[in-house]
Amino acid sequence: MARALLIVLDSVGCGAAEDAGAYGDAGSDTLGHIAQACAEGRGDREGLRSGPLNLPNLFRLGLAHACEASTGRPLAGVAKPAQPQGRWGYGVEVSQGKDTPSGHWEIAGCPVSFRWGYFTALENSFPAELVAGIVKEGSLPGILGNRHASGVAIIDELAAEHIRTGKPICYTSVDSVLQIAAHEEHFGLDRLYALCRTVRTLVDPLRIGRVIARPFTGSPEEGFTRTGNRKDFAIPPPQETILDRLAALARPIVTVGKIGDIFAHRATGVEIKPFGNAAMVEAALEAWDGLPDGGFCFVNLVDFDTEFGHRRDVPGYAAALEAFDRLVPHLEAALRPGDIAVITADHGNDPTWPGTDHTREHVPILAFGPGIPRTPLGRRESFADIAASLGIWLGIGPVGPGRHW
Ligand SMILES: O=P(O)(O)O[C@H]1O[C@H](CO)[C@@H](O)[C@H]1O
Ligand SMILES: [Mn+2]
Ligand SMILES: [Mn+2]
């Protein structure tokens, strides 16, 4: 029986979607602009990387073809192979929102049909009643922040005051999120998680997608660093996902990285959560090796987004792509006859774009495996085509409203 390996490269978009203008993102292009910057020498960083974007394995599977089909422009500085060895295409998001849950749920066969709640005010972002609720239910002396912010910057700015006062740092972004940063020792990690659970119930009526714990360590003298203990408290997907269908049929499921959090731990099987892209691929390969027939392994690689997209770090993003590319042959070697692997993304996060938020983009879709034909997938009108197709591949029928390939 077939097995399926689905890898989401978090934020690796391949060109502005037709509706990107409604998100302030017309012209954004995560992969295209990284390739362009690298071709022009703006992707160089001493000791890290230099030169044109070098992704020989992903290009061999059809990534450059997918980018060009999405934007109508070739990737700068990249010679694309004449005949890709994978099935390549790109997906268009139908859900309203350029956030991680929307992208992942749609990939899993559950597009988001409702509108998320957002905290749109840049300052004093949280309604007064909500702040009062957080303070009361969390037994807190108050909160800091209460505005739109980039996570690393707001910790640098407010961590000392947080330690002095015991007030957690609460902030948001253009996404449907309420993030809480607190010091692992001074405030306490378990206490931060408990606070996030409390706040989760408070923001449920506001349809906020995620409450995110952002623990950090350090001191004013040595500086502060976010740790790997980030935890997302998401609302569950509103309808069946491919995970639900597989779990109901007692199929083996392994989820790696943020997947468990994103699906509110519903039908997420054995959850593995190492820190960092390389460790996640390694853990996924190990789990895949022991995954029985009919099994599904669903992986999210978050570093592209968190470490480089939101930080608007082009050389860092390019280096992370190149590091992943070097692991692709290991993924290919791990596929047996009957297996399929799909590499895709959940939204864009163009590191050359103004601001620090996600960008509304198409995503690449690369499918490969020993028995997979090399015909193009073309343009897919929903990310949900992935769940529909993997459902068929796994013998459980198409899942969700997508059209299978
Ligand atoms: O700046 P940081 O804290 O990384 O926040 C980012 O992470 C959040 C969740 O992905 C996004 O909404 C974005 O604001
Ligand atoms: Mn994401
Ligand atoms: Mn993000």
UniProtKB/TrEMBL annotation:
Positions with a binding annotation for Mn(2+) 2: D305, H310, H358
Major enzyme class: isomerase
Matching Pfam families: Metalloenzyme
Cofactor requirement: Mn(2+)
Localization of this protein: Cytoplasm
Cofactor binding, note field: Binds 2 manganese ions.
SUPFAM superfamilies: Alkaline phosphatase-like, DeoB insert domain-like
Keywords tagged on the record: Cytoplasm, Isomerase, Manganese, Metal-binding
Superkingdom: Bacteria
Function of the molecule: Isomerase that catalyzes the conversion of deoxy-ribose 1-phosphate (dRib-1-P) and ribose 1-phosphate (Rib-1-P) to deoxy-ribose 5-phosphate (dRib-5-P) and ribose 5-phosphate (Rib-5-P), respectively.
HAMAP family: Phosphopentomut
Stated family: Belongs to the phosphopentomutase family.
Name by which UniProt lists this protein: Phosphopentomutase
Organism whose genome encodes this protein: Bosea spartocytisi
